[in-house]
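Bit of a strange request maybe. I'm writing a small parser for structure token strings and I need a real example to test against, not something I typed by hand. Could someone generate the tokens for this chain?
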Amino acid sequence: MPSYFQITVVAIVSATCAWAEVPPAASKAVDVTQFGARPDDDGDDTQAFVAAVDEIQSGSVRRLLIPPGRYHLTAGGNPKSPSVLFPFSKLDGLEIEGTGAELLVSGVTGLFLFDGCRNVSVRGLSFDSPRPAFSVGMVTASTARYFDVAVEPEYPVVGGEAVPAFMDYDPETRLPMPNGLDIYGGVEHTELLGPQMLRVHLSRNLNVPVGHLMVLRHQVYGSQALEFRRCSDVEVNDCTVYTVPGMGLVASVCENVTLKNFNVIKRPGSRRPMSATADGSHFGGCKGTVLLEDCTFEGMGDDGANIKSGLYLSIRKRLDDHTVLAQHNLKMVDLPDPGDTLEMSHVDTLDPFASGKVRQAVLEPGEEHLHRVTFEEALPTDLREGDVLGNASRAPVLRMRRCTVRANRARGVLCQTRDAIIEDCVFQDCTSAGVLVLTEVVHFFESIGTRNVVVRNNLFKNCNYGAAAAEGSLCALAYLKDFAYPSKPGVHRDVVFANNRILGTNESAIFVVGVDGLTIRDNVIEDACRQGSRPFGSSAIRVLDCARVEIAGNTVNPSQQGEHFSKAVMVTPSAP
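Reply from user aminoacidic:
Good idea to test on real output. This should exercise your parser:
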């Protein structure tokens, strides 16, 4: 896992918003062409878009109209907002109407940022870049401390490009290489040897195979096509992201977010192996409902969708009977709101032993991002330094249906919330699990232990075969310190895996540990355990340390399984 992930949750101190009123004439619109934008020409339309956005922000009209056609935009074109081109703040009833418009963005920048808005609608937009934030080419030479890449012509290189991450792909399928490289933080610098010939100097010894296709990511996280912070009632419809130097869409501490026909895909007709350099969609600390319908996530550098309650805060000091200083493992900020309920867990179990309602939460001065959290109730006597706080008030209902995630690095869906249904979806050629129900205190400290998760009627095809691989194609597990599993049930509760087809995977098809209330029913499993290199990876269905377990009606024909298959179902210990 990379160690420099910086955007999971944005620090926004709770405040009373001065909402702008919805205008009485809702049919009026601000049209970007009124300010000089011209579709389908070679001119730069950034300033026209900035002027139109300023008009929306300062005026009474809440509808931005972008007529059909392609528009050219440039990073840094909004001097008032250096990291994102088009920010909106505290608006009610905002509509962005694209009607088939495509925004072609040069440089590294966020596109649309919505901060403290409500009743937001974004429709009919697509996003692309003439020069994606990655390069692709064949490895022509390799030593322990460098390798040479013949970069394809559509990715111009000059030398000196940063490469925070790289991984190898099959040159014929242009999919991530099975059991291939997945390197973060391994490059010192790059050097141009000749036209489109890049030498990548390494910071440590690595074996980089000659003849593999290499994807060099020059940007991983940080810039989104669409980002929502503390917004409510958000709808994104009929939008497509072909590439972005970060995530397709991020929603942080929002309430009720709906994505319908939101697609992050490799541009049709191109030979790009990658779309977004990070997640297709990412939801941190939201409330209400997160709904994903009829979406496609393809070719990302990370997960298709990550839905989590937020970040675990570790107790650093107990100040009095009601107050603690707490900090995230990577010193990110995830400040709870007054009234939020925080669950308290020991990191050697992650099973909550107490909870408390927040009276006040503020950041201490300084760079350490210490959170001073004061509770309404007295703290439990057994709360100790190193215990973690997980925000149970920011665990949104998840409904994901008829979506497809394919050809990406890492997971199809990372489910870290409560009351979730993932159904009628397709997960294909995901290098890690198609669906991973997870909470962990290993690196990112992402929360929370799940409750009432149903994964049903989905197809998993050739998942969990390469980079960032998990224990199975469909998993529910927790990672404690040093990737240890919980030794007793209760981290997750009431999980149902039913009526799924799991076709082709290197390890177990279904792997579950630490669940109290588990149903695995009527799943069809073929070609599981092709490698079985992980502990327990030779059983099609593997269950450890769970309680209230029902396993019934699953179809696992031994003659149709992988080379290292030994058992259809293995449960340890057998729990009633």
